Amino acid sequence: MKFESNDGVLTVFLEGDIDAQNASSIQAEIDAAKNAHPNDEILFDAQNLRYISSAGLRVLLKFLRAAKGKKLVMQNVSRDVYDVLELTRFVDLMTVKKIAQA
Description:
The protein is α/β, with parallel strands linked by helices. It has a single domain (about 1-100), classed as STAS domain (Transcription Regulator spoIIAA, 2-Layer Sandwich), CATH 3.30.750. Helices cover about 35% and strands about 35% of the residues. The protein has three helices and five strands; from the N terminus they run ββαβαβαβ. The protein has helices spanning about 25-35, 55-65, 80-85; strands at about 1-5, 10-20, 40-50, 75, 95-100. Strand 2 (about 10-20), helix 1 (about 25-35) and strand 3 (about 40-50) form a beta-alpha-beta unit. Helix 1 (about 25-35) runs parallel beside helix 2 (about 55-65). The longest helix is centred in the first third of the chain and has 14 residues, at about 25-35. It is globular and about 30 Å long. The relative contact order is 0.18. The mean pLDDT is about 95.
């Protein structure tokens, strides 16, 4: 996973699968990046995210709660990941932008 901080926005580039096997380490990585840029808002880029399980959704939920009323944004979301976010109503909790179709 990589991170980029520009103009008060910390972009978190999610990749691969986020599931019970790696959710806690991913959360720790994002926490460390957020602690390094405490005033930045978080933007999740899901272009390379293939799958997210309920454990991955818990990671997102932690950052939704920490946003204190601000809507988080997840961009470049694939159809499969969008379906999971829609089914679990995360699309009502955050701004979710599907990947641009060519």
